[in-house]
From TrEMBL:
Protein's cellular compartments: Cell membrane
Leader peptide range in chain numbering: none
Organism: Pelagivirga sediminicola
UniProt-recorded name of the protein: Branched-chain amino acid ABC transporter permease
UniProt keyword Hydrolase, yes or no: no
GO molecular function: transmembrane transporter activity
Length: 298
């Protein structure tokens, strides 16, 4: 019974984290048709920025729940600044080009940003454990469970709901849906497509930075953390269907629980569990669970 509870708790936590990591990637692809390899670098920048901001916060003698406000502001500011700089400075000049070229451009950008983080923050590890330890533990069926992990689950759910409301209720979100349906007709009807692209890329970058920010208190922030993330994010969105936000949620749940089951029942297969699920899904549905051939969804 304890093992089942552990699988459920670990699967829930990891699924929430995977959704936060992947949702920005699938949003950008759904609207802009760009498979953004630099997403992993944005995640890493968010984590480093969080470590720096919290270091200043605690270094000034402050403590308490104000750290979470600092984390939220760090994700928003970092994502908007980096996202708009990349979109306006690089990607805007390449719209309409072949998708393979865009992949190569974002891959090159990923390598550049990886080296830039080393130049800015060095190669030493950063530790900001205080927010993770702030709420302590609770007892779930006889197992101690970190409350911070529940907070991450809540953030993932809130993020998914906020995106759904944005896309279905907000005017700007409905304009995004129109651009997804047909970019050329949207432009002909007077929609400012470059502006929609800029907003979309900024939101996607904020989401990547948010994933890095919420992860920073749980890990050692060190060079290379963005590499694994982009691979996992790609696996999740492929399982769910590229460009589908519900698909990203379902893909995160499937991948998260597959990993949890493998960790507790067959640890030797942990590294392969998510990719095995991806291979099985693609063998059955080559375009993912929520995507059909030739469709663009969000």
């Amino acid at each position: 019974m304890l093992k089942l509870i552990a699988i459920l708790l670990d699967g829930l936590s990891y699924s929430a984290w995977l959704f936060l990591v992947a949702v920005g990637l699938t949003l950008i692809y759904g609207v802009m048709r760009i498979l953004n390899i630099a997403h992993g670098a944005f995640y890493a920048i968010g984590a480093y920025a969080c470590a720096t901001a919290l270091g200043l916060y605690y270094g000034a003698g402050w403590s308490g729940a104000g750290a979470f406000l600092v984390m939220g502001l760090t994700a928003i500011v970092t994502g908007i600044v980096v996202g708009l700089a990349v979109e306006r400075g690089i990607l805007r000049r390449l719209y309409g080009r072949d998708e393979v070229l865009m992949v190569l451009v974002t891959y090159a950008l990923f390598l550049i940003l990886e080296d830039a983080t080393k130049m800015i923050w060095g190669v030493e590890s950063y530790f900001v454990y205080q927010p993770y330890a702030y709420f302590g533990f609770i007892d779930v069926g006889g197992l101690p469970y970190q409350v911070y992990d529940l907070l991450v689950v809540a953030i993932a759910i809130a993020t998914g709901l906020a995106l759904w409301l944005w896309l279905t209720r907000a005017r700007m979100g409905r304009l995004m849906i129109a651009v997804v349906a047909d970019r050329e007709i949207s432009a002909a009807m007077g929609i400012n497509v470059p502006r929609i692209f800029a907003i979309t890329f900024a939101i996607g970058t904020v989401l990547a930075a948010l994933a890095g920010v919420v992860t920073a208190p749980k890990i050692a922030v060190a060079p290379g953390i963005g590499v694994e993330v982009i691979i996992l994010a790609f696996a999740v969105v492929v399982i769910g269907g590229l460009g589908s936000i519900p698909g990203a949620a379902l893909g995160a749940v499937i991948a998260g629980f597959a990993r949890a089951v493998s960790v507790h029942l067959a640890p030797e297969f942990e590294l392969f569990a998510i990719y095995a699920v991806m291979a099985i899904v693609l063998a059955i549905r080559p375009y993912g669970l929520f995507a059909a051939q030739g469709e663009r969804k969000i």
